[in-house]
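Blinded run. Sample ID left blank on purpose so nobody reads anything into the name before looking at the predicted structure. Input follows.
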Amino acid sequence: MDAAPAVLDQDGLAALVEALVADGRTVVGPTVRDGAVVLAELTSADALPYGWGVELEAGRYRLVPRADGAAFAHSAGPQSWKNFLHPARELLWSADRTPEGDVSFTAHEAEAPSYAFLGVRPCDLRAIAIQDRVLTGGRYEDGGYGERRRRALLIAAECTEPGATCFCVSTGGGPAADPGYDLALTEVVDEEGHRFLVRVGSAEGARLLDQVPSRPADMVTESTARGAVDAARERMGRSLPPVDLRDLMGASLDAERWDDVAERCLTCGNCTMVCPTCFCTTTEEVTDLTGDHTERWQRWDSCFDLDFSYLHGGSVRQSSRSRYRQWLTHKLSTWYDQFGTSGCVGCGRCIAWCPAGIDITEEVADLETERGTESD
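Blinded prediction complete.
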């Protein structure tokens, strides 16, 4: 879009949420709940986590107060937008037996919500683009995901405060929003006040911005916003080694490092649950007590589940070593073979929310070190 950047103050952001609600959209954004910044439905901008940041480390997440009152100065929390676009459990169809003994099938086609996602991080924006390719870009589209995605409006929030577990720059991304958003916000808090630089990415975004009070962007706000995003790029908490990860993972299938991580990994699947790109599902059938009604549900599954690779006679990947290796090599290497891209956007959720504190960047670095030692 060629629209010039604009500036919203806090009242303008509040008006933006009001306009989205008035349009009949379900607004989802960050808010503080149960000791974390979570994603939930918002009816007002007052629910945003003003004045809250987070401290992150491997296996550690803590809310911390901020003196500047910023709304988007926090790193990725335990949820991603996958929870809404690709829900953990979804009804596919039901079947009923009539008194005459016939069976009728009914496909479940619930109307998709008209979502407005407020505060989509650049890493999550890239994750949505990846899931678009996985779930709608192939021969068989996930119809439920596709409909929810087509109806969703994305308002990005660029990062100015990367967390200690963030490593998006080393995955080819960064704290600036890539194309794909409808509106992009960059928060600025300085002696000039609390405001948001707004860039328009679509006609729908332009229409929405026209409905709320804003002013043309001034040079100070633009310069400060761009400087904060550029500075964030230099303050990533972690990074993957600058090597060809596809080659590294393919050459490391027999590495001893897998035994080390297997001793620590609980195979709980937390990393796949919080990952914004993991997409694996299974199906289950449930019936009522009469046996005359049954339903098929799709639910998330994980390659850390022992039954995930079950074939007649047993599971293919029975050890925690083989299951962790499958997850990491698929994410960083063979994902390219399937979808033409890496499956990792560097959000750091798998590090922060691993109860054993396993750090994906550390594991990859040690695999590279082991490979170098063997080649000497």
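Unblinding after everyone has recorded impressions. The chain has a mean pLDDT of 94.
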